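User: quick one, fold this
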Amino acid sequence: MSSNLADNLVATARSLGDRPAIRLDASTIDYSEFHRAAAAVAGDLQARGIRAGDRVGIVVPNVPAFPILFYGVLMAGAIAVPMNPLLKAREVRYYLEDSAMSIVYGTKPVAEVVSEAARDAGIPALLLDDLGPSMADLLGHPVEEPVVREPDDTAVLLYTSGTTGHPKGAELTHANMSSNASTTVDTLIETSPDDVILGCLPLFHVFGLTCGLNAAVRSGALLTLIPRFDAVQALHVLERDAVTVLEGVPTMYSAILDAPQAADADLSRLRRCIVGGAPMPVEVLRSFEERFGCEVFEGYGLSETAPIACFNQPTRPRRAGTIGVPVRGCELRLVDDDGNEVHDLDVPGEIEIKGENVMKGYWGRPTATAEAVVDGWFRTGDIATRDRDGYYSIVDRKKDVIIRGGYNVYPREVEEVLYEHPAVAEAAVVGISDDYLGEQVGAAVALKRGARAEPAELIEFVQQRLADYKYPRRIWLVPSLPKGPTGKILRRSVEPPVQRT
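Assistant:
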């Protein structure tokens, strides 16, 4: 029996074919049309020589082309590799080459970036309209039934950066993705075909992919899309489409709450709100609930856990400021620096996760996989405490990741680009507290002897080479950076100078 994640689309199309599936403004496709389009993409891929296990890239924003391509890739038995449309060509090329990708899709707004990256990597690039491929241009015959895949076969490669500065592809299996979507539908959102989910989370990110797209397909709900989040547009779509489920990162909730239109917005159909990706300020949570009358449930997950691992759940008392309790099919524990389990209440320890949601490993990196997953337990690098009722609270991060508005920025990746500048001798990238985004990216830079460069010049240098959410908004020059006994730069000792007003 097949365990292909795309089996969910086939089943929903057969039972709820005339129900609306995907909406973008005035354009709507139902589940039958969704299935037919994905089947046609699968047939086209097979006609182009794509076989089970081949990697296929998707550099597409939140438009109907994304779900059609994603499920078409799965139906062909291939591995989907979603990428952020904000990436620059050099970043996309890295993904193409690291995954040994066979083909990459893009939409016309990112045509230049995708075409350049594909040309440099030596693979074909196919460019589509936002509404998906033209059926007349597709090759081969539609693949009506998904290619049979085993539960442990990789369905998706989701790239997540690391302290080495090189992104790693987390291999999420068909079983990982299917079980986490089912857990989301059954226990967190309690989704039905009558629900309308706002698709404002990026679908290339695991939160939007699992809790938005895959959960909608699993339950027959409608996913109404916003190509790139904007609070005014989000409020418009929330009202226009009578949205019942809102999913977002904390900055999205803040932006919706602060939008001028919020005072008069009617969100009375909203019944379930979930938030993740970064800590949710309790005051924002309470203000949102008071204004719109819908409880917000906060939780926690990672790319490597497909993503949902711990959540405040509707069947249990909610505790604002916590990430809740482990979800179905998942275990959490806390360990100290020596790997010993922390049993005492309210004592910090690193979160480790075990369960049906934990990734297969990092693509092509057995050493990194062995370091990250030990005896089935995934080491998150996040520090938390646990109370007497089993609720977890994040208190710190062991890793150096900066979370800017819900996006992960890894300092080493930004530092690598700064070191490419001919005037830079040393660089340390750190997070700077930001009232709106949570954290902003900053960098302390020491120049080479005799070299000259202004902070604005360095900022522009990085901006041209990395996605917009990654480049430092603030750079300050220092004579040298703090170092430990071995000469290693002590990033945690770097602090930005006080800005005078």
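User: anything notable?
Assistant: The chain has a mean pLDDT of 93.
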